[in-house]
Amino acid sequence: MLCYIPADSHSGEVRAALTPATAAGFVKLGLTVQAHAGLGAASGYSDTEYQAAGVTLVSQHASALAGADVVLRVRKPPPHDVSAMKRGAVHLSFLDPFNEPDLVTRFAEASISSVSLELIPRTTLAQKMDALSSQASLAGYAAVIQSAARLRRALPMMMTPAGTIMPARVFIIGAGVAGLQAIATARRLGARVDAFDTRPVVEEQVRSLGAKFVKIDLGGTGQTSGGYAQALTPDQIVRQQAGMARVCAQSDIVITTAKLFGRRSPTLVTQTMLNGMQPGSIVVDLAVESGGNVEGIVPGEERVTAGGVTLIGHPCLEGTISYHATQVLAANFAAWIAHFWDPGTRALRLDTSDEILRGCLVTHGGAIVHPLFVR
Ligand code: NAD
Fold first, then answer.
1. Is the pTM here over 0.85, yes or no?
2. In which element (H, E) is residue 134 found?
């Protein structure tokens, strides 16, 4: 069975879907592994290391794609790559299927078994494959590091002979995987941290990390059976904004991570709230790619407002630590492959009664099979 890992570099992606360590594991299973030359150049893994792990490096993308039984990549493929694949092949990547109906149709028409990393169930069994979590956790860390580097203040309290430096204040909006890691990182750096989330169960987790949970009475909020936040009503959003305005105004760093599964992220920090912040403050929006939590933040842009607040709309902050983002992402791919590997036939066995597969398989056997996308 031939596994091919193309380079995602055309899309500005700096992570890779394979490390030399995971490649060695694939070879041990019995896979033949081909990767595009220079695959790990942007994340710190050299061609020599891949070759030592048993990977054949190729430069002819089209022929490698056409011959592969399994293709692993970070981002969704360009549409023509789907049509160029072998019928019956398996494709794993982030697919953004809610926003890519044409791509999903193309996968079905090309008879490719496409797997969306975003849809891997958030269960204990699938934890090792959970690429949303592995990347969100690093993004939360990177958001604090990047903001701290831009802030003209220190984060920890420092008592020096020349006077006392007060700790910086950090406000984290949304305390899921990214938010909790951001809280932990800011606390380790000595900042005073406030956090808010609409899921009441999160309050205890926020407190246990040494942060203060901001109390805002929104009435009924909750979470879906999958653990995701439920969307608020327009009235609840307005109440949340009002409740957060004072905390934003007092904060040196605001990091937003509030997302809704399969839906546009809510706007939580308005222009008026930004106007109320001190010059020199930093705002990072980790939900920028799914619509954004902060008014006026643009994906891929960093700018300073007229009021002196730096807005960071980097769509992939985990890419600033691409070595480790690649390490854990490749481990997610490897866990998926290992789960579906049949040692008897030395091939992938896609058992559609498998709970994990049912959650993440979008197209199979020439049709759209995921219930969220069947039309
Ligand atoms: P996410 O990226 O979808 O959202 C991030 C956070 O934003 C969530 O905590 C959400 O409640 C919050 N949010 C949404 N709207 C908000 C609003 N208006 N104001 C403030 N916060 C808002 O979430 P995630 O980090 O991917 O986690 C989703 C769920 O999955 C969580 O319950 C998490 O604990 C769970 N999870 C479970 C596992 C596992 O069991 N293996 C692994 C990872 C995540």
1. yes
2. helix 131-150
